[in-house]
Amino acid sequence: AWSRAMASASGLAPIIAPSMLSSDFADLAKEAQRMIDSGADWLHMDVMDGHFVPNITLGAPIVKALRKHTDAFLDCHCMVSEPGKWVKDFGEAGASQYTFHIEATDDPGALIDAIEAAGMKPAVAIKPGTPVEAVLPFASRLHMVLVMTVEPGFGGQSFMPDMMPKVRALRDAHPTLNIQVDGGLGPSTIDVAAAAGAN
Question: Which helix H or strand E contains 57, and what residues bound it?
Fold first, then answer.
């Protein structure tokens, strides 16, 4: 398969992280288990504050409630204006990884330190309009870099193939880094992302 061959070449395992935003929130624990039973490696939690992006979704209380029902890796993508403000809450809620947007902070290094101190893996996301160079100085300290392949804040958008040079640049510079792509992924786009170096 596409991902197994790429994974053996890079030494990285492919990671499937479905967005829980598409779940029935009234039955989130059951939906999480359904995703794990279907082969998901991580659960992607889309956190939106209504400021950094126009929508409001879930926060640390929902992550805490879900954590009681799963030991899955909770990949929290925080599309929030003040990412430093929420690190402690998500750490205490049981988040596995805290992904902040590079565009939302003036001090990524301090934020990475805070995330690690709270017991989570640090990760950074970049929006389509942000050059990959913005994250390169910090990439060696990260568990993952997320390259947005849609504008963050809304589901159902089309995949942006012109983001793949960012993925290639990251993969070339950091062969063992987890690189996630988010937005518009499906059977017709996953091979393009994998070929660029996303795992």
Answer: none
